[in-house]
């Protein structure tokens, strides 16, 4: 396993003079769900408020992460959160969209309100209803986040774009297909333990590596097991400052030590498809603010919309040198018992990817680990985590560094 360098301790509070905490959270089951978008939002919002030990009247602001792009007829959902409790009536509520990073965009928007002092408690909800539409509609909606393919029709959606990344990887380094199968199998093992996950079935590396009737090719080198599912779901967190923490909160909560947000160019020709330069920028900014390096982290929840994304991210985030991402899983570094576990929750690949909910979900999963409340997913030691969420093909990139209290 690699030697992971440690950094110098700082926090977001050192940078801005305000400590931001996640005081409570909630997570619906992901998958094909009966509730409407409204129902999912209400379920998550009410549960998060209860978990934080507060009343709806204690909330100062609401932020909703939701992508939509034609997957739901209602394109103006910000006030749907008010359906959770009449005490929310009159609060400022904003819908935030940044493609598949809409959830983390909402989280970081809430943080900025706390840092600015315009709110002391913010309810952040991420939600998406995707399964009501046919695959062509969903595919086209997702492709609206791509510069070249926006407005076109496709049943494979972003799979074709990430299949191209896999082809670039094969041309520059080596065929990643078997490593992708190893990543998929890892994700399914963890997803099987996650009660919120869409796909709760363990699959072998051999099954994930072989093209079959049950595991067909979706696009290029990507098989079905390399792709996150189309999911419905919602997650919510309550952001607050220490003096606002309720004695009735279910846990001590967790602290934000650093955040980073970086956007890359949208046109494909202006980006190296394997550099994920925007992700690198957000990663470095968040770790610098927190005063940490890889060796300080207990685990990472990262955006594995496709297994090739996770492989490239091993390299972009510095777990391995370029072209050597396969070593991170071969030597066990990213496994639950390794030096730096990745996607202990099962990740987007198995937990599911209801687009607007994903970033909020990642923060919930990290908070559960850091408070020792992750059940069968719990790591033996979890003191500091990084959350990475990206929109498009590494276009809008968000990173949060969280600590246990």
Automatic annotation (TrEMBL):
Keyword Disulfide bond: no
Transferase as UniProt keyword: yes
Gene3D superfamilies: 3.40.47.10
Residue intervals of the Thiolase N-terminal domain: 22-240
A GO molecular-function annotation: acetyl-CoA C-acetyltransferase activity
Superkingdom of this protein's organism: Bacteria
UniProtKB keywords: Acyltransferase, Transferase
EC number: 2.3.1.9
Residues in Thiolase C-terminal domain copies: 272-403
InterPro entries registered for this protein in UniProt: Thiolase (IPR002155), Thiolase-like (IPR016039), Thiolase_C_2 (IPR055140), Thiolase_N (IPR020616)
Descriptive protein name: Acetyl-CoA C-acetyltransferase
